[in-house]
Amino acid sequence: MDGAELRDRMREILLDQQALVRATATGRAPGAHPAWRRVELRPVTLKAGARLQVTTYSATQAFASNHQWDTPETAETVDALLDGGFGEWTVDSVGERVRLRSGARGRVTGSVRQRDEPLKVDAVHNRSKERLLPLDHPVLRSLGLTTADGQVKPSRNDKLRQVDEFLRILDASLADAMVLDSTRPLRIVDLGCGNAYLTFAAHAFLSSRAIRLHVVGIDVKEQSRERNSRLANEMGVGGDVTFVCSSIGAASTMVDEHAPDVVMALHACDTASDDAIAAGVRSGAALLLIAPCCHHDIQRQLSAGSTPAPYALLTRHGIVRERFGDVLTDAVRAEILRLLGYRVDVIEFIGSEHTPRNVLLRAVRTGAPADVERWNDYAALVSEWNIVPTLGVLLSDELAARRPEEAGV
Q1: Helix boundaries (H) for 57-123
Q2: Which among 111, 94, 114 has a CA at the least distance from the CA of 6?
Q3: For residue 83, what is the DSSP state?
Q4: Which CATH code of 3.40.50.880, 3.40.50.150, 3.40.50.261, 3.40.50.300 fits the domain covering 138-402?
Q5: DSSP state of 152
Q6: Residue 324 near residue 318, CB atoms below 8 Å
Q7: I need a surface site. Which of 10, 85, 222, 229 has the fewest CB within 10 A?
Q8: Residue pLDDT, tens place only, 224-282
Q9: Is the separation of the CB atoms in 101 and 1 below 8 Å?
Q10: What is the DSSP letter of 380?
């Protein structure tokens, strides 16, 4: 299907009370400015009867509205959302999943996937958000996130929410990256795994979906490797979840050995996130999920260098310079990945009340070449700001191999 056909199919599902299970819209199409950060649609049953519930999210709040089915006003609401400039739509019906993504230069891609088994419509109103791993799951108890009776430990609530939201994005991204292969296990490497919350949770969740997989956690601390290996054996998953002691920077060879489909890193500090991205690219991973933490490298370069005119206001005040350094770092990382043939989204994967480091780089390898204009724009940016991105240094050979001859860099 082309973009128009995908849109029409999504509209048909969104307005069908018997078919719609849930739908989400996130991100923004190039050049567009959606009114909301995120939109969710689902059927609900109220005292007044069946309704289409539309929940819109700003940066800090959520607003729910309920609409009668089969009315011109509801159709207008759905049309306005479909034309609202969102970058990605996912619409789940009883029998299929429809996805649509708006890319650069008006390019629209998407897919329609039929389900092996039909979904059930859950129209319960005021339900709590379903967790991907139930609170009484043994892995959460073993990790110290919940109590023996399945209650969240207050001190671990933020960590549990981060893991849960990260898993949602992993789940949604696997099909997009087309890495599920029934002939072999899915291979995941978790870099800077620490106490392995995400490592174990990813294995538990994907295993519950009958996905065969092998997960490797890599961390610089030997005590983490010993603890996590012991936990894996106690949980009975030592054959599928293994751990290695290494810094992320020195882990590239080990990552290559495991030939991962997915490389993920949750809050690898400063240039360790660059190391994680570089290891994933070199290994040929089809999906990278990187949530950076700290951005001191480029912040230091901004402090030491002179600011190009007329942007002095961006670096005059320390806190503004720090936040601008965060934005500049992740924007450069995303662009380097695009130059290397990845489709990249930069998203907030969780609310800032759970962690201030809530940005996630989601990169899916497509192999598509970047045009000369994109290469020249990147070169102009780093030259004007007089910065040397660590990721660009780490992947200098890979960049040189893909750079078109006519690029002016």
Answers
A1: 72-82
A2: 111
A3: T
A4: 3.40.50.150
A5: B
A6: no
A7: 222
A8: 999 999 999 999 999 999 999 998 888 777 777 778 899 999 888 888 899 999 999 99
A9: no
A10: H
